[in-house]
């Protein structure tokens, strides 16, 4: 996961959170998060990269629509990343939320 771009990691998280999403559904989720338009020229090459890396499977719903799912390796990578992040970021940090211990 360390060799992925932030955008590619976000793609993995969106695919993990939706059931067999198609490209447009992924695009809409990311546009909501980024609050800007995601162009097809950015989306689909990055999805193809994730497929080539073995993190995502691409299936065909009909002749025009593909769907994406995480592979076992993709799910393992997300879990490993989550475990790594949790070493540095705690879920419930009341001091940080209240501004305690933060110097200006």
From TrEMBL:
Residues 11-79 form the Transcription regulator PadR N-terminal domain. It comes from the Archaea. Gene3D superfamilies: Winged helix-like DNA-binding domain superfamily/Winged helix DNA-binding domain. Coiled coil: none annotated. This is PadR family transcriptional regulator. It comes from Haloprofundus marisrubri.
């Amino acid at each position: 996961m360390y060799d992925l771009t932030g955008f590619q990691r976000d793609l993995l998280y969106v695919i993990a959170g939706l059931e067999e999403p198609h490209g447009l559904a992924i695009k809409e989720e990311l546009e909501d998060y980024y609050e800007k338009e995601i162009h097809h020229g950015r989306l689909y090459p990055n999805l193809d990269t994730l497929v080539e890396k073995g993190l995502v499977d691409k299936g065909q719903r009909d002749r025009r629509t593909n769907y994406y799912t995480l592979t076992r390796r993709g799910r393992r990578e997300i879990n490993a990343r989550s475990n790594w992040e949790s070493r540095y970021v705690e879920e419930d940090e009341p001091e940080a939320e209240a501004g305690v211990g933060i110097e200006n």
